[in-house]
Structure prediction request, 795 residues.
Amino acid sequence: MRFMLLFSRQGKLRLQKWYLATADRDKKKMVRELMQVVLARKPKMCSFLEWRDLKVVYKRYASLYFCCAIEGQDNELITLELIHRYVELLDKYFGSVCELDIIFNFEKAYFILDEFVMGGEIQDTSKKSVLKAIEQADLLQEVRHPQTHLWSPQNTPMETP
Amino acid sequence: MGSSEMCRDLAGEVEKLLKTSNSYLRKKAALCAVHVIRKVPELMEMFLPATKNLLNEKNHGVLHTSVVLLTEMCERSPDMLAHFRKLVPQLVRILKNLIMSGYSPEHDVSGISDPFLQVRILRLLRILGRNDDDSSEAMNDILAQVATNTETSKNVGNAILYETVLTIMDIKSESGLRVLAINILGRFLLNNDKNIRYVALTSLLKTVQTDHNAVQRHRSTIVDCLKDLDVSIKRRAMELSFALVNGNNVRGMMKELLYFLDSCEPEFKADCASGIFLAAEKYAPSKRWHIDTIMRVLTTAGSYVRDDAVPNLIQLITNSVEMHAYTVQRLYKAILGDYSQQPLVQVASWCIGEYGDLLVSGQCEEEEPIQVTEDEVLDILESVLISNMSASVTRGYALTAIMKLSTRFTCTVNRIKKVVSIYGSSIDVELQQRAVEYNALFKKYDHMRPALLERMPVMEKVTTNGPTEIVQTNGETEPAVLETKPPPSGLQPASQNYLQILEINGFHAVLFSTGIPSITAYNKNGLKIDFTFERSNTNPSVTVITIQASNSTELDMTDFVFQAAVPKTFQLQLLSPSSSVIPAFNSGTITQVIKVLNPQKQQLRMRIKLTYNHKGSAMQDLAEVNNFPPQSWQ
Prediction:
């Protein structure tokens, strides 16, 4: 995988993870272009498109578009599964995840992604172990900063701003 | 993501970590190793010893990352590939266990255990089995098993099947397995899910070269996909359809493709039109069908046809001699209604110019001849000239056609003369020049008119495409000689230029000539140097000059050195000479090749310096060469 983007239907970028070092300017350009193309797609169209020399796999969950750019020889269908697995992980962690969870806890979303995918390839195919790793990281955080942690997903209900 | 220096430094650490007992660390180490190898491929051997036990892992995470590592190594190095081939049986066993084993909740996705790992293993098997019979044989069974046992109701199952199909196609599988794979793809095509259909079409496109017959069986489904609403699917289906056209199905396929051309989005029309032309050229069952198809394309998607298609079409029409009357009649009818589609109008005006007499005499055999008078024909050509929609090139075609008709028509010559003289003062420089020249033809060279404007001969197919020639506007025309047509004898040189203008206008394509006259650049003291010229087909600014030096005295000239200098805007490249001795009595020559780059197309001039030994004394001479023929540098 080259990169993964999460953006809302209004065109706001929520998450971006790049697996190949690219200049900032190029990144911005690519994000803008790709968002335009994907948002222009109609709902019934197929989830794959060709863009520059990469294949782009995208899926829409509620108000968020999950977009992955893969290389020529990668399997598109399994990438769809990858996206779904990531969403499942987020769901398990946040408990019925919605876009707001990702907005307010974006660093956790990044942690989960980093535990699941590294260097563009899947690290662990077992949901349990990924979540276990995140839990352990959370515990470490709590131990080190017991006063400063403002919220943890288990005990603060989210208020809609 | 580390840089290559960081990778080099840390590679040792990573390698150690690969061997630790902590599986969490090991899987991360494996992916680090992948990244290191991507950045610095030479470090691959470092990780080789650690990979020995990788496949014995129980932990799926580590197993998965190890397979990724092995895949990366095998892709990068053929030695590694050979080394890891022996792992094929082990991989097959792991895959088998995955399929057969019971339900494992943590790795399960919709009833299939660890699809990610399955897909990865299949991919590694693909790389290992490519071009290797033994490995491929070892995999046959498991591939068949996966292909038949995987559930296809969910996307996951299809993902695995897709990877399996790709693997089967790539390795040296037996034919039964290949047929199985194509059938799976055929089933994908019927699936309701668009993604699956897209994936199927893409894979079929890849396999159509090798397994043509098997793919043909699914032709009707593919053609149905042309009617799908999704743009990506339509594009794939179109490409695949073109790949599937052959002598047997060409009529049916063309019908579908023409219908598609009618209804598809504008971005496809150009590609579709070109594809139809190519396919029609290769497989046309009859000349009439071919011309009908071309007509259909020109009328439906006329404005999207590529510019270079027009000369090709014209050539095609010239070559089908017996169809001239039919063609011109149909073209005439086509532009009567609508003359906005430029390529159509261009082809039509050219044909009417050439075969107008057939049109007026009503000689058509293939269909009902229509009654057309000369005035009606001129009416339509004049409206093309006047219309705002016509491009400058199209107007040029129309004017030339009108001129040609002056010899073919009998009662409307005066009208033609009037039209031609009006355009003598047109704002468009191209039109003006043509009109002026044609006017001159009427006034001063009227006796030559019939010979000049006679019918074009059948053209031979030119393999190299020349760019469209723009006639010089200062009156100095390019005497570009056509390869196939020798200039008719008995014509004076001045009129040859006109003949060639008309031919250039007619073809709108230049066939690069090989007939540039050679010159004698230097002739003194018994030393004669001739230049022969060749223009490069790939780079129009390059002229290749071959010099031949000969010696007519009774003693040899030795240590002959030829040097040349050109003005600043040129570049010169001198290749080595054949020898440095010119034998006496013209019994031999020295040849040397000079390449001149003339990007600004300026008049070629050269100063040459010759040094040689003759009759015991050293001779030296400087000379200027100014008599280069225009074709060598224009």
The CA atoms of residues 168 and 178 of chain B lie 6 Å apart. The longest strand of chain B covers residues 542-551.
